[in-house]
Amino acid sequence: MAEERVTETENEAGQEARWLDRVGWRETIMLVLGLLVLRIIYLVWLSPWELIADEAHYWEWSRHLSLSYYSKGPGIAWMIAASTGLFGVSEWAVRIPAALSSAISALVLARLTNDVTRDQRAGFLAVVAFSLIPIFQLEGVLMTIDPPFMTSWLICAWIAWHAFSAHARGKRPWLLWAALGLAMGGGFLVKYIIVLLAPGLLLYAVLRRRELSWDRWLVIAIAIVLIGFLIGISPWIVWNSQNGWPAVRHELGHLGAPGGDVPPQWEEPHGIGSLLELIGTQVGVIGPPAFVLLVLATVRSIRRRGEAPERWPAHCFLMSVGLPTIAFFALASLKTGVEANWPVSGYLTLLAIVAEYSVADIPRWLRERRGWLRHARAAREAGVQPPRSPRSAWVVGWRWMIGWGLVTATIVTFPTAWARMPVIGKAVPMFRIAGAREMAGYVDGLRATLRESTGKEPFVIAGSYGEASRLAFYLKGRPTTYDAGKYVGRRESQYNYWADTDLSDPALLGRPAVMVLKPAEKWEDAFGFATFGTMQEEPPVHVGTGYGGLKGEE
């Protein structure tokens, strides 16, 4: 029986090796398309997620198409407008661009990995790793700015690799440089962090200055990229110049710099503690197994740059693209708060290095294991202690990453089921993913009561842009809602830049209103009402009649 088990295990090892040898570009495309189809089926028929605050707010932007917006460029609004225009307004229509972006990101990552490693097996494994990482799983089903931003980042990296490679061969790839500038500009219209790609590319050019020849042609190439970038971001420039550059103030606020728009109550001490917190969140959103493999791949590449000089240019590029972004946010965390998702673009190109080492080490381990199995069988037949089984950090890492990724995929897919579990269910942030529809139903009831008792059409005010946007989506008729954040202690939002959401509009005077969130005294301090009352304490909901406008303008 023991011999049969050894033979069976040996056959399984051989099958694993042959399976890895058979994967290529066709299998990669099939994997990506399969995941895309499953995500679309999930979003249309199975998803329990209500729109989270950011998704709803970007949908609000899509109802007010513009050249740019208060906190971000117009890219996400245009995409949501295109999707809802084609499929109608629904949760899944808002999110379809996220699923498409995730699929495109996976394909571009595979193509970049194939081109850099010259091994299509590595491209396949890079897609598998990308699909197993929790934050990228989440970004495949939620339409925030991150899914299309990841796509932009990878497209820029792919173009840059080919542009640098052509330049190193003495060619003048002007079209590639122009495409890189335009692609970075397009990425900027989605998320400003795309600018952190530029220091990484410059770092690579400096590190490879002997091969890339810092001559006038490279300087001209940089100028072409800059011109393309400025053309790409021209909508953002026009809108901000017309509105006093609010986007600049917003980003300064995020960085905790002077002139920012983050109110004092958001400020708190930062330092080593916040850096350690950021590291912890990175381990969480990437997943411990994948995080360890990324670190191992980076360290191994740096340590072996002299042993495999032919691979160093590729690894240097992949690290130059990713590591500066991670380092920037690590340093920024010492000064200000850093969200867990901000640095994750830096890990994307590092996945190519993980895939390359995995393709080399896993088959080697499988061969060693087959040899060990034969020796172990012979040792058992001779009645001696068999040799120790071969070990591989990459095999262990992949086993744990697959297990971890499958678990997190179930959490992302069915969070409400996990929320019902004892102990761990408390960690699921249900307030972010549910409750908006129920609140909208309650507010609709109050609107009907006020409409009947006053004979006037009530309007709805919320204490944050996210709550205002979620109510706008789920209220009957999807009416215009109003964000009072600027007047009740929060920062301003895009609502403060639209004429139809201006709380100083004279057309609102005398009308009844439903107010959601914030203690009653905040509303009474900011607005004038003929009568004011609290309908429920948690979450706070208030009503008022005879709206008198902003008290500061009396």
Topology readout:
Blueprint: H1 2-22, H2 25-46, H3 53-62, H4 75-87, H5 91-117, H6 120-132, H7 134-139, H8 146-168, H9 174-188, H10 197-207, H11 209-212, H12 216-232, H13 234-242, H14 246-254, H15 272-286, H16 288-303, H17 312-332, H18 350-382, H19 393-413, H20 415-419, H21 430-433, H22 436-454, E1 459-462, H23 465-474, E2 481-483, E3 513-516, H24 520-526, E4 531-537, E5 540-545
Parallel strand pairs: 1-2, 1-3
Antiparallel strand pairs: 3-5, 4-5
Helix pairs in contact: 1-18, 2-5, 2-6, 3-4, 3-23, 4-5, 5-6, 5-8, 5-18, 6-18, 8-9, 9-12, 10-17, 15-16, 16-18, 16-19, 22-23
Keyphrases for this structure?
mainly alpha; five-stranded mixed beta sheet; 2 domains; globular; 24 helices; disordered N terminus; 554 residues
Task: Give a description of the structure.
This protein is mostly helical and 554 residues long. The protein folds into two domains: 2-356, no CATH class; 436-553. The protein has helices at 2-22, 25-46, 53-62, 75-87, 91-117, 120-132, 134-139, 146-168, 174-188, 197-207, 209-212, 216-232, 234-242, 246-254, 272-286, 288-303, 312-332, 350-382, 393-413, 415-419, 430-433, 436-454, 465-474, 520-526; strands at residues 459-462, 481-483, 513-516, 531-537, 540-545. Strands 2-1-3-5-4 form a five-stranded mixed β-sheet, with helices on both faces. β1, α23 and β2 (481-483) form a beta-alpha-beta unit. α5 packs antiparallel against α6, α9 runs parallel beside α12 and α16 packs across α18 (350-382). It is globular. The termini are far apart.
